[in-house]
Specification:
Elements: H1 9-12, E1 18-23, H2 27-30, H3 32-38, E2 41-44, H4 50-53, H5 63-74, E3 78-85, H6 105-122, E4 127-134, H7 149-154, H8 158-169, E5 174-179, H9 185-200, E6 207-210, E7 213-215, H10 221-232, E8 237-246, H11 262-281, E9 286-291, H12 324-334
Helix pairs in contact: 6-8, 9-10, 11-12
This protein binds alpha-D-galactopyranose.
């Protein structure tokens, strides 16, 4: 089967969820045809993060983000906004006074509100959903939230504040809390606790984003099911926001694999099939499944966590041809 044969993913899953891909200014060119054929939603990989859009207090850089938003409009795709508040890829000035010391809460909030008004306002009508806060929950230990400059300055309240600002800037937008290790029972329960407390405070939050940076070996399907059920019990919308299936276990450091062998591709096909079967069971709660890329020629996993190592996490290969996993999904849905 070549890339122009077989159903488009977006048609295969049209009764289930939107099918998205993370893109950047290069991949909308190099993967443009594949994206237009198979996907009906995009997310900017980096270009809408705070540090990319707002490098200096008095300077915004919209050229690349606008290009991606234009690609979505031109192709009639939906677009997710990613991400308003994160502890990474933010600008230092946001947290600092002129002398470099940590600023105060009022200043931080005023800056955040100005940023959110400007950015969310600019893409109103194009972006229907925002990751308002990304990765605020601590992976380990008792603490609910990870320590960051956000918590240092404002405690945990910055989360509610960001959602309120985003809602004011675009009352129509769906607002998400987004995180990884989302199926890990400890972290899952913390995410649940955080979001439940936001709901109890009347904070405008509409969904939970499961990043879904997974592998052929992790997570167990039972853990995925339990996480979906727990999050859905809050009555919120769910999305998979950054799906990829690494061919390596997270702690596997091997660097000798030059190309995935048929057995590995078969394993990946089986994994994709069982994951999508499960996701379809919960399609009344899940609105969208976004891959963190589109085809194996470009993935952030080529460098992470092992620098310089190639990975093959997607349904399409380096030439944008369907992999065995694609065929298995077609069979599973149509068969
Ligand atoms: C996190 C972020 C994404 C991206 C990935 C790595 O999941 O949410 O924006 O940076 O890490 O590519």
């Amino acid at each position: 089967m070549n890339a122009s044969e077989g159903p488009a993913l977006k048609e295969l899953f049209q009764d289930d969820f939107w099918i998205g891909a993370a893109v950047n200014p290069l991949t909308i060119l190099t993967q443009g045809r594949l994206l237009a054929r198979h996907f009906n939603s995009i997310t900017a990989e980096n270009e809408m993060k705070f540090g990319s859009l707002h490098p200096k207090e008095d300077r915004y850089e919209f050229v690349e983000a606008d290009r991606l938003a234009g690609f979505a409009r031109k192709n009639g795709m939906k677009m997710r906004g990613h991400a308003l508040v994160w502890h990474n890829q933010s600008s230092d000035w946001l947290f600092q006074n002129a002398d470099g010391s940590l600023t105060d809460k009022e200043t931080l909030y005023a800056r955040l509100k100005e940023h959110i008004d400007t950015v969310v306002g600019r893409y109103k009508g194009t972006i229907y959903a925002w990751d308002v806060v990304n990765e605020a929950v601590a992976d380990e230990g008792e603490a609910l939230l990870r320590n960051s400059r956000w918590t240092e300055i404002a405690g945990g309240e910055f989360i509610a504040q960001a959602f309120r600002y985003a809602h004011d800037a675009d009352p129509e937008a769906q607002l998400f809390y987004n995180d990884y290790n989302e199926t890990n029972p400890t972290k899952r329960d913390k995410i649940y606790t955080l979001v439940r407390s936001l709901l109890e405070q009347g904070v405008p939050i509409h969904g939970i984003g499961l990043q879904a940076h997974w592998s052929l070996y992790h997570p167990e399907l039972d853990e995925l099911r339990a996480a979906i059920e727990k999050y859905a019990s809050l009555g919120l919308r769910l999305q998979l926001t950054e799906l990829d299936l690494s061919v390596f276990r997270f702690d596997d450091r091997r660097t000798d694999l030059m190309k995935p062998d048929p057995a590995l591709l078969e394993l990946q096909a089986v994994r994709y099939e069982s994951i999508f079967r499960l996701l379809r069971e919960y399609r009344s709660s899940i609105d969208s499944v976004t891959f963190w890329g589109a085809a194996d020629d470009y993935t952030w996993l080529d460098d992470f966590p092992v620098k310089g190592r190639k990975n093959w996490p997607f349904l399409f290969d380096e030439q944008h041809q369907p992999k065995p996993a694609y065929a298995r999904l077609v069979e599973a849905v149509k068969g």
